[in-house]
Design a protein that fits this description.
By secondary structure, this protein is of the alpha+beta class. It has twelve helices and 30 strands.
Amino acid sequence: MKQKNEHDERRTFAIISHPDAGKTTLTEKLLLFGGAIREAGTVKGKKARRHATSDWMEIEKQRGISVTSTVLQFKYQGLRVNILDTPGHEDFSEDTYRTLTAADSAVMLIDAAKGVEPQTIKLFEVCRMRGIPIFTFINKLDRQGKEPLELLEEIEAVLGIRSCPMNWPIGMGANFQGIYNRDDCRFERFTERGVDTTDIEASDIDSPVLRDVLGEQLHEQLKEEVMLLDIAGDPFDAELVAQGQLTPVFFGSAIANFGVATFLNQFIRLAPAPGPRKTDKGPVEPESPSFSGFVFKIQANMNPAHRDRVAFIRICSGQFERGMSVNHVRTGKKIALSQPQQFFGQGREIIDEAFPGDIIGIFDPGAFRIGDTLAESGSFQFEKLPQFSPEHFARVMVKNTLKYKQFHKGLEQIAEEGAIQVFRQSNRTEDLLLGAVGQLQFQVFEYRMKAEYGAEVQLTNLPYSYARWIETSEPIDRLNYDRYSNMLVKDNDDRSVMLFENEFSIRRTADNNPGVTLHTTSFGM
């Protein structure tokens, strides 16, 4: 198969942040400046007429939050840009964790007033574990917040990563004047409408032009702060960025359209193209002529009218061609990849080819699982995607027994997306339990079961907070554990799992069963 060397033209990245840092707004402004949309949607209340382009699910529009990852693809300056917009709310973090496996870099969004927040820390650690380069956009400079130097110190102290400001803010809040770009000495003036159409280019930071525009006091402050960065700060180092040890930092205000274009232009120049991917048989290079990829997300009912089910595939090597047959490594079967689609939120179009770095959607008749490897040749497997321990549990039943068929179909399909986990008590196959990382996932589950499958469900919360996958060579019925405070169940793959109320119960069970290993995820089992 003739392969184009097009992976160097791809930029595939995820946007991560704590809730309300402005992630959806930044995403839409990137699309706006990239020419992908003419008007950015606004995330408003239930009665809003417009909603964020990246929030396509009805419950997202009603609540004004993102609850599922979205793929947004467009061309910009000769490059193919793939944005993986992830949920910011911690209750949907597992979807975000898996989506990050498909990214080559990440944009970390920080609220200037709040600094580094808990969910940002969690997502940053996932990026660090996977060696993903991180670029930082500090948002909401048009509101009063922490001092820029304080924010840089917080990034380094809390996250343990060095920072290199690519531009520098002048003033803040009501006194916000704009940003000074360190590489070309260009000053972008801030107005209520965003960036002024007449940017000011200076020969250097001492230019009288800058002094005349900013005034003596602000100009002196800018000189002092930039001089401090030049002397004590970290210089830009592409190798350290690629290793995840240094984050380039940009300042701006997404809601005001300010600093976003500058960020986008520099980001696509600095961000990495698709690189090699680890497998159980060594790395696979994007230049490899043989197609390969992996399923990182499954989404049912993106088009409710057709009750469709889509498997999202990250292409890692070779050239994808419509209708090609590949090895489905987990099952050992050949499978034809027909009707491949590329996405823009909920919108989609049929494509004929795609390359490493691209994200495509394939109609899924129920054959795929999250983490599946697809390869044109060979039987290697990409790194497994872990299933995390739920922190909330509930017993589930259908309210109307006449809807039992719809109930089981919905339960099966939503569980295969990975947002919830289904368990059964070992001795009662119809006694179904749900596990989720966040409580809000249960509300989404209830909503989707009724809206998409016509089956109303009843959830009864259970007192457990931990799940541990059991690895033992002894029969499960010989386990020594407290049957009043713990529960033994099976997951969807018939693996034994113990549910615990607290960490003390976990330690006691481990002490009472020295030959048993309790795993926090299903990874590697």
